[in-house]
Design brief:
The protein has helices spanning 19-25, 32-44, 53-63, 76-89, 98-109, 116-129, and strands spanning 2-3, 8-9, 133-135, 149-151. The protein has a single domain (2-155), classed as 5'-nuclease (Rossmann fold, 3-Layer(aba) Sandwich), CATH 3.40.50.1010. The chain contains 6 helices and 4 strands. It is of the alpha/beta class. 38% of the residues are buried.
Length: 163
Amino acid sequence: MTAGNRSTQFDEPRRSRTNILLRLAEPSHTSHTAVADAVEQMRRSGRRLVILPQIVYEFWAVATRSMVANGLGMTAAEADRLIDEFTRRIPVVRDERGVYERWRELVTSYRVSGVNSFDARIVAGMLRHGIPTLLTTNARDFAKYTEIEVLTPENMSPSVGSE
């Protein structure tokens, strides 16, 4: 999710970068409660949460991938229902033309390669929409991007967003 005064977002090696949505979708996952609490804390602090389209795309890919391939094994209908639930509570920002140019700048200036280019697209979307903060369970992949603040459920304090 990325957050901030506009906010939204959700890792395990092959589970994509949509880890917040994935944790919310898996009530039995050990991180579910911490993630749900972090999202609620951000909401209570006055931050407007939003979801970037890239996060939805990645959620779909992992949610509908078989469990054997480290996915959630959902049907398309199940994944669609969850996306509807998420987006009723947290709006999706538009996929804008300006994201591409910003993504190109990021992948070249940070020398991004491989699957990490998807993370750069998330950051590009954040920058395009003026979203300052990313909530993720995988801060390591976003640490290089000095343009954004990266929060994890574990490093959030009760005062996050109350300044």
